[in-house]
Write a structure and sequence with these properties.
Two copies of one chain form a homodimer. Chain A has 417 residues and is of the alpha+beta class. Chain A is built from 14 helices and 16 strands.
Chain lengths: 417, 417
């Protein structure tokens, strides 16, 4: 027996109903914010991803040679492809350019709950602006997208990598030292962080001050430590936070310098949204201000964006017991006798033409088996086409929820829907 | 500069608008006919496709080894994956099972107009029935899907491979001879066909009779030639044709035995829809009755289905000059002064919350540049937030189509949309 490849999934119609409804919900908010949908290919030239993330990424992705010996890769993420698209074809578009997308991505990863080898991402890129209003709008939109899905338990955290970098500089950390502590900061392993910084030769007071800075929400404390070199960025960051809170009216978020996303890629404000119910794989959204355009050969311009882990949001909604609507069939038409079959088809077609989801008995089954099938496909009404009723131009309509039956003139059949 | 891989495409927001509207149109008809959407992975184990199509297919597709040395392939079509899904997980579902899908497929093919290395298919499978009503409904639905897209110039052709095979047998053609003439029949190269059959030793009268049978719409003529062995299938075929014409009321189609689709895969009635405007790549839909379930290890059951070349339908619509609706922004909000910025954001957010597609000036530009940008994103109305009007709790609304301006109370702003 054949199976789907490890780490991939088949989706039943019940699952697709949920996925489509989640996609609609996310898309609606992107559109309301003036974002326009685009699409890029499922695979790209491998060097696009190594240019962005280094050769190390090859071990984590699906890369292969095509028959023309081109090195290709199934995309592991969508920002690089969208930036490539922008540089290649969209640089002349009026700015800001607001782009959103849905797309499957691929990672050669150990499959586990919330981690698949083929997974879906939703995301957006905002190209050509970095005013505080623009960044605050981006963060607020991310929050509202998740909120609009119906998810209750979510945490937004906003940080800033430019400020964090200047603090690293202030305490004289070297590049390899920074690389070592980044994962410790990310996982909030402050004991390990303490030990590491001690080994790097920092005194206890400096370490405590530093760890406090990672945890504080008080921007003045940060400003005081970081000094005048960072003042402009801290003021800008303060403005963004202020807009998010007071103007975009997002109440529920935490400011923390402890957000560390790809340091050589992100350049300023960064943010993450978590669904705590998901445990280890709790991050459902991440993004911020970044620079990639010149790396891909374009004229540098301000860029920011975020990606949403579609599958994880769905998992989080299911964990919270969110009630998705179910598949159903509005009408199911059954001919009582052989010579009623054509009449039954005509009624079926009439309903379909009026956009009523309608099915009909296609297997010549008995009435009881036919009704059982109608029930199994969640039919709301069954229309029974019998010869006696037909003489009076009527059909019998059975309401599958109440079980009640009544006769209805064929000419008035659309009225019951 | 990085480029998208050869034979793949990037889609702009204008193109996505068309693609989404076409997808919606196709989906609507599938759903009205009681079909439910499913999805399978983008890649499968390679042996799924060689089992269906033979080793020869490897040279035409993207196949590769993953890091666990598994032989994988980007799917070249969707029937095999859906049948694999059915056998693995859906065999116990009530029958008939009506499944539809959209998915990208991949072929390592020479790129040309209407032929891409990554292309989109829509399609469906009908599992567990083969009554004339079921097959007639399937064919009629395919026709109505294409009709519903807005395409004007289309041709439906219906044939039957079981009857054609019995005629091959009747004139004593061997397997390799049949394989040789199949492409000639497919391309309607009747002179070449004539020569080939002459070489196979058929006399002129037999050849003429045979070629007539490929062209005739007269089922009685076919019945007379094919004899009693085919009578049952011809009667069934006649019933299907009759239902399509008289009950499903499809007027515009041609019956022809000249439709030859994968002889060892399709088993009975087959059909194709063409868009003549596309020239060589004119086939936009193809399907019929087939057998695959037992090949994939399942308990054999009647199956039929069809696939639609999504990109070709779109190309055909564009060729006919079909007028797709365009992307637009309902409102664009501009603050006149720095201290009106927060107020502008609040108005923007209020409109978005009411599902009005709204954007705002995010780049601190002058009024004239801002209006130019609003125009470039196809904004219908511009809302100007100025300090004088604000004192009276009003804003200025400029209609971008008529150019007219008027002042409106902020509390009544939703009423103008």
């Amino acid at each position: 027996v054949f199976q789907n490849p490890r780490g991939t999934r088949d989706f039943t119609s019940e699952e697709m109903k949920k996925r489509n409804s989640l996609e609609e919900s996310i898309k609606k908010v992107f559109q309301n914010y003036g974002y326009k949908e685009i699409e890029t290919p499922t695979f790209e030239n491998l060097d696009l991803f190594t240019a962005k993330s280094g050769e190390g990424i090859i071990s984590e992705i699906y890369s292969f040679k095509d028959k023309g010996d081109r090195e290709l890769a199934l995309r592991p993420e969508l920002t690089a492809p969208v930036m490539r698209f922008y540089v290649e074809k969209l640089q002349m578009e009026p700015k800001p350019l607001k782009l959103f997308y849905f797309g499957n991505c691929y990672r050669y990863d150990r499959p586990q709950k919330g981690r698949y080898r083929e997974f879906k991402q939703a995301g957006c890129e905002l190209i050509g602006t970095s005013t505080p209003e623009a960044i605050a709008e981006l963060i607020s939109m991310a929050y509202k997208i998740i909120e609009n899905t119906g998810l209750k338990d979510m945490k937004l955290k906003i940080g800033n990598l430019k400020i964090l970098s200047s603090i690293f500089e202030k305490i004289n950390l070297k590049k390899d030292q920074i690389e070592y502590i980044i994962p410790l900061i990310d996982k909030e392993l402050f004991d390990d962080l303490y030990n590491a910084l001690q080994e790097f030769g920092l005194d206890n007071k400096a370490i405590t001050t530093f760890i406090n800075l990672l945890e504080t929400e008080d921007l003045n404390q940060i400003k005081k430590f970081a000094g005048s070199e960072s003042e402009e960025e801290i003021n800008r960051f303060e403005k963004i936070i202020d807009l998010v809170k007071k103007t975009f009216k997002i109440k529920n978020f935490k400011v923390t310098l402890g957000i560390v996303r790809g340091l050589d890629y992100y350049t300023g404000t960064v943010f993450e949204i978590e669904a705590p119910s998901l445990g280890a794989e709790k991050q459902i959204c991440g993004g911020g201000e970044y620079q990639l355009v010149s790396l891909f050969g374009g004229r540098e311009t301000d860029t920011s964006g975020f990606a949403i882990g579609f599958d994880r949001v769905l998992l989080a909604l299911e964990t919270e017991g969110y009630s998705f609507s179910e598949n159903y069939t509005e009408a199911f038409v059954i001919p009582v006798t052989e010579d009623m079959k054509n009449k039954a088809i005509e009624i079926t077609e009439k309903l379909r033409k009026s956009n009523i989801v309608t099915d009909q008995e296609l297997n010549d089954r008995s009435m009881s088996k036919s009704l059982k099938y109608a029930n199994s496909i969640n039919a709301k009404k069954v229309i029974i086409v019998g010869p006696d009723e037909m003489k009076e131009k009527k059909v019998t309509v059975k309401d599958m929820i109440t079980g009640k039956q009544k006769q209805i003139e064929i000419g008035k059949i659309l009225e019951i829907f």
